[in-house]
Each structure stands twice: as C-alpha cells, then as structure tokens.
Design goal:
By secondary structure, the chain is of the alpha/beta class. The chain is built from 19 helices and 16 strands. The chain starts with a strand and ends with a helix.
Amino acid sequence: MSDEILVVDDDEAVGKVLAALLTQAGNKATWVGSAEAALATLDKRPFDLVISDVRMPGLSGLDLLKLLRQRSPDLPVVLLTAHGTVQMAVEAMREGAADFLLKPFNRDEVLFVVKKCLSSSETERAAPPKAPSAKVESADGMIGASPALDEARGLIRQAAPSPATVLVLGETGTGKELAARAIHALSGRAKGPFVRLNCGALPEALFESELFGYEKGAFTGAVARKPGRVELANGGTLFLDEIGELSAASQVKLLRLLQEKEYERLGGTETLKADVRVVAATHRNLGEMVKANTFREDLYYRLNVVPISLPSLRSRPGDIPLLAAHFLTMLGAQNARPKAVFAPDALALLGAQQWPGNVRQLQNFIERVLVLAPPGDVIDAASVQKELARAGLETKAAAPVPGAADSLPERRKDAERQAVEEALQKAGGNRSVAARLLGVSRRTLYNKLEALGLG
C-alpha cells in the first residue's frame, strides 16, 4: 500500500510541485492551500505524513502542528520554510515536528526526509502520555499518593538540580517521558529546550544523522547543513527514549558523546561541544542485556548514574481512583462534560483492573468511556463494564448460546459495526477522534468502515 502524504502550502505552485514530486516517487500525495483545509481533509480520510508550510494566512504551520499533536499524535508532521534557522527548528521540535525542510527544496532531500519520517512512524504508533493540564499539588505533574510513587518523586527532586545523567526505568505507559520532563523543569536548564529522540523508532542507518546532524553533501539528499538533536538541545535536556533498542554500532556513537561531550556532524570534520544534560529511558532490563552481550557494559554504566524506577499501575491500585478522577476532570472539560463524575461502583471496577498499559492505557480508556457513556453527570458501572468488555479487559465469560458457533463471524461483525457507529456518533463524525476512542489507528478505522459498508 502506498503511503499517503498531505501537502499544505498557500502557494499553489509550490504545493503542486511538491505533491507531484512525491507522487513520482511512488507515494499518494494531495495538496491543499491552508491549514484549515488540511484539518477538514484529515477528518475525511487518513494520511501517513503531513508536510506543511510554516507561514500561511490564517492558521500557521506551527498552529497546525500543535492541533495535530492533540488530535493525531502518531501522525508525523514536517514543516517547510523559507526562513529556516536553528531557533525555528528548536521550536518546531519542541512542539513535536518530525523534521523540517528549507525552501527552495531539493528533490533528494525531500525524499530522504519523507523516507525517514515514514520509517520512524511505522514503529512509533502510540503517543507518549501527556502531562496533566490540570493543576496538581506536586511540581512533577504525577498523580498519586502511593509509597512507590513518592519514592520516585523524591529521586526526581534530588536528581533534577544535578548535571548527572539519569536513567528512567519502567514499563510502557508508566510516564517515563513525564518524569524526564519533570527532571528538566526542576533543573537549572529549565529555560533551555527539551528535545526528545525515540531510539526505537529510527532505523539504524538514520540514528547518527538524526542525533548529530549532517553537513551539506554528507549523503544523497543532504543539500544543506542540518542540526541534529544534540545541537537542538544545546543548553537544555536531551531525552533519549527507548535506549534499550539501540544497535551495537549506535551504542558506540552514543558512548563517545556521553564520555567526551563531543561529536561531529555526519560528513563533517569539526568537533563540536555538547552542552546537554542527558536523560534516558527504557522499559527493558539493561542489566540483563549486558549479561547477554546485547548492550555495552561501559555505556550502561554511563547511563545508569542516577537510576529512577517508575512503579507500574497494578503495584499502586490505590492511586487508580485519584488518576481516574483527575483524567475525568481534565478530559471532561475538553469533551463538553465538565461535571462528569464516576459512581463509586464504577471506580471500583476501574480499580479491579490490572491495566497492563499502565497510566497511558487508563487515560485512553477514561476518554473512551467519557465520550461513549450516556448523557448525564454520573458515569455508572454499567457504562464502564460495557467499555471494559469492548476493550477486552473484562474476564467474565458469557453464557453459551445455542447455535452461536454458526453465527459467530456475523455476531462479531454486528458488534464491530455497533462500536464504530457509536464512536462516530459520539465524536460528531470526526473520524480521527473516533479512531482514538476505539483504540485503533486512523487507517485501521478507515479500513473497517469500508469492510462494514460504512465508508
């Protein structure tokens, strides 16, 4: 299946030329003339990548980027500008841009950046947990009162003022990026940039150029010097997520950066100083990987200066009601249900779950319940039970029905149709929101709509 790319540029000539270039390279490219038109188009069909001009009448490219990070956090966005600077790149990266291109653009560089972004997005579909927007008592933004969480909070507060490298450990969805941002916010580098690089989402061949940047002519498509994440994070914090996914070759390159605080851009000869504080994170057991010779021991010790372990949600069940109430307040305000509360038996059901996806899974589930539950200020146990079953979290077995085996495929199809129709209705027809409510990707939802005859 060809990748679908949306080009957004108010200059019709530029937009159509770029769309034609991408189409010639085997992609499916669509051009629209404004950010507003882009949002409307994204509501109607899925895209794998958005390339947007920065300066446009109405909503700017940065405005569009911010909106898409809220609506479709797994959708990579590349910004296109005639005024490319490191400062603009820092702002774009901080807002979640996958990359940026300079005008006038070069064919090889465009195709290189597109390939890189599409390759990365294939392995990075889940959005990192968002920092709570509601005011909370702790400066780290974490919700809960369990001893395990308090211990992690204490370590964060102790480690933040130090320049030492921090290794954040924990299962997927426990809030490792939230912890890294708290370390940055509580440090002396808080006014500097916080730049994230997901080491597990990049092909090995792209790691060096993405981390260190590259010089003009370093490879086909490198038509101008491009800053890497180390340079973008200058004076701030570099967050290396999924550090346990690095290849052996990439581990060597990172080791030198940590040991000597020096690096060279790919294709360059000038040695540059790295003024960054490194925070790394992983859900893997790096100690066991060292024993298995899949992770360098010297790199492990460089990273593991200050280890901070985040507890799983199942190890702090008493925090689930606090988290549920917080997310319901935060998401209720966003979904026109600001007074919504959980009934006590509904909270009990939530607290009885294991939540293998941890806080992230709980937050996504609560948003789904909030949108799909019947109108009213109280969300009851029946609404929670229904969504638990639909999400595959309910363990109770249904009573056998005579003849059910013969009709199982049709019954499954009916259930899927009902779930999709309810999600679309609650989302007001917005398919991106409906996909999030159903816990599937936009492309999966569009394929399901077609299969169910709802497209």
